[in-house]
Structure formats: structure tokens, C-alpha cells
Specification:
By secondary structure, the protein is mostly helical. The chain is 48% helix and 9% strand. It has a single domain, classed as Fumarate Reductase Iron-sulfur Protein, Chain B, domain 2 (Orthogonal Bundle), CATH 1.10.1060. The protein has helices at 2-16, 40-44, 60-64, 74-82, 85-90, 103-107, 114-131, and strands at 21-24, 27-30, 34-37. The relative contact order is 0.16. GO terms for molecular function: 4 iron, 4 sulfur cluster binding; metal ion binding; oxidoreductase activity. It holds the Pfam family Fer4_8.
């Protein structure tokens, strides 16, 4: 199932978001914000989450979150789906706003577990920091 979703995302990215981007296999280069890795959602599963591609970006998690605005955690989930690692790293401080209260997870209509996605992103950011 994940492969089908990934192929749909890859198709969407390569057909609909061509402006300012050049394709290089499974990676798209975008000059202002770095690169986009199609396989990032799969890579994130090593940090503990494999549900991020279930999200269809309805915004329920952002609407229910009592702590933050500006489309958090929805924005971070979308960054994972399109493979925008650089944008996640640029906005990494937002990840630590989440207190893991579980409201987003309980209200997600697709059971995408946004709280676990945020936790996996924290692990991803920390693993990169430890390697540097």
C-alpha cells in the first residue's frame, strides 16, 4: 500500500510541481528550499512511524491542537509526505512545542497518528544532530 501511495506522490510532484524544480531520479532539486526526497516517508519509518502517508491533510490535527498555530502539526506532516527534509530541519524547533497530549491522534479520521509522526521527526532531527 505504501508503494502505491509513494508512486502517487511521486507522480503528483513530478507532474504538478515542475516550476522551479529539476528531477534527478528519486530526488527533486528546488533552488530556494533545498531538495525533496520522495523516499523520506519510508526513511522516517526507521525512526518509529509508518502512518504518515495515511494522512490526507484534512487539518483536524491542527484544529484540535491546544498549543500551537500556523498549521502545526499538519505542516510538518505535509513536509514529510513531499520529502522536504530541509524544511523540517529549518523548522525543527516547532517539533518541541508538542507535548504529546494525544488529541491529534484521537481525532485523526485516517488514524495517521500525528503525535507519533512528530515524535519520529524529533528522533530524526536528533539522529542527524548526533552524527554532526
Amino acid at each position: 500500500m505504501t508503494t502505491t501511495i509513494q508512486s502517487k506522490i511521486k507522480s503528483w510532484i513530478t507532474s504538478g510541481v515542475k516550476t522551479g524544480m529539476e528531477s534527478n531520479g528519486d530526488t527533486l532539486k528546488d533552488t530556494p528550499s533545498g531538495s525533496i526526497s520522495i523516499a523520506f516517508a519510508e526513511e522516517l519509518s526507521k525512526c518509529g512511524d509508518d502512518t504518515v502517508l495515511e494522512c490526507f491533510n484534512c487539518g483536524t490535527c491542527s484544529a484540535i491542537c491546544p498549543l500551537v498555530g500556523e498549521s502545526f502539526p499538519r505542516k510538518m506532516i505535509r513536509y514529510v509526505q513531499i520529502g522536504a527534509k530541509d524544511r523540517i530541519l529549518d523548522n525543527a524547533e516547532e517539533l518541541w512545542r508538542c507535548l504529546h497530549c494525544g488529541l491529534c491522534t484521537r481525532t485523526c479520521p485516517r488514524e495517521a497518528d500525528p503525535g507519533e509522526v512528530i515524535l519520529a521527526l524529533k528522533r530524526f532531527v536528533l539522529s542527524g544532530w548526533r552524527r554532526s
